[in-house]
């Protein structure tokens, strides 16, 4: 599997073998710290360094969810490969659809992202927040679809770019969430989407949304535990409950046991 990542103004292509061995293609020799940066980006993208033990222990005490976890043994969350990509995507989904946001995001990458050709195949990385923030109004409207969406995208991109990315990954969850919510144009859904789907912070999830309620019914039946009960049981790993419930409940070959 190959995927392009942005390294400064360039693109490099990470190649993963079946045993998760990592090779890196680039247009020049990379310094040790640059290779380490790409290794860190790949690890975060595939959540390879996540300690799942707390979540797995909680799931083992939750009969229906334990069934799902066993069916999805080894599953780790695949995230957005960069903060810029996730920020743009979730901003574009506001008052829109996932299909629309995905199409717009792909166009931004195709036309603005750095690229590298490996074995005759063109690989493109998503551009930086700075690149998107530097677009003129007409250009940004062309990518976003209308002025209102373009204005929101510019505001959110500028606000997120002003935050320290490493701190977003490692800072206290409540403080990071507060900082994201302070960015104009970021509401509760976008903040939690960035925290879970981009930054890999499983401390919470918008469990009251229809898609998570449906996931809970898929796991537990027609009378599933509510958000408060799930948060009490899974604690700071409830985001991983949400990921497994939405991703893997359909993987179970036999009917799920009925929750007591």
From TrEMBL:
Question: What GO molecular function annotations does the UniProt record carry, in alphabetical order?
Answer: catalytic activity
User: InterPro entries recorded for this chain?
Assistant: DNA_glycosylase, HhH-GPD_domain
Biological processes annotated in GO: base-excision repair
Ranges where the HhH-GPD domain occurs: 92-254
Q: Where is the signal peptide?
A: none
Q: Which domain of life is it from?
A: Bacteria
Instruction: Give the protein name, as stated in the record.
Output: DNA-3-methyladenine glycosylase 2 family protein
Q: Which organism is it from?
A: Phytohabitans rumicis
């Amino acid at each position: 599997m190959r995927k392009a990542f942005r390294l400064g103004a360039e693109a490099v292509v990470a190649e993963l073998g079946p045993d998760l061995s990592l090779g890196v293609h680039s247009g020049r020799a990379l310094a040790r710290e640059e290779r380490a940066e790409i290794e860190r980006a790949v690890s975060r993208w595939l959540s390879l360094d996540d300690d799942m033990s707390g979540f797995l222990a909680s799931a083992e005490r939750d009969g229906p969810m334990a069934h799902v976890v066993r069916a999805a043994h080894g599953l780790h969350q695949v995230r957005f490969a960069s903060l810029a990509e996730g920020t743009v995507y979730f901003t574009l989904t506001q008052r829109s659809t996932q299909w629309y946001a995905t199409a717009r995001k792909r166009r931004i990458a195709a036309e603005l992202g750095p690229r590298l050709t490996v074995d005759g195949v063109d690989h493109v990385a998503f551009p930086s927040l700075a690149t998107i923030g530097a677009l003129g109004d007409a250009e940004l409207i062309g990518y976003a679809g209308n002025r209102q969406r373009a204005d929101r995208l510019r505001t959110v991109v500028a606000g997120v770019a002003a935050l320290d990315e490493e701190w977003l990954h490692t800072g206290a969850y409540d403080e990071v969430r507060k900082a994201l919510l302070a960015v104009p144009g970021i509401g509760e859904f976008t903040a939690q989407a960035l925290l879970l789907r981009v930054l890999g912070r499983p401390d919470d999830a918008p469990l009251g949304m229809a898609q998570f309620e449906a996931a809970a019914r898929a796991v537990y039946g027609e009378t599933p535990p509510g958000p408060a009960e799930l948060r009490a049981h899974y604690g700071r790993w409830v985001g991983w409950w949400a990921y497994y419930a939405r991703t893997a409940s359909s993987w179970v070959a036999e009917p799920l046991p009925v929750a007591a």
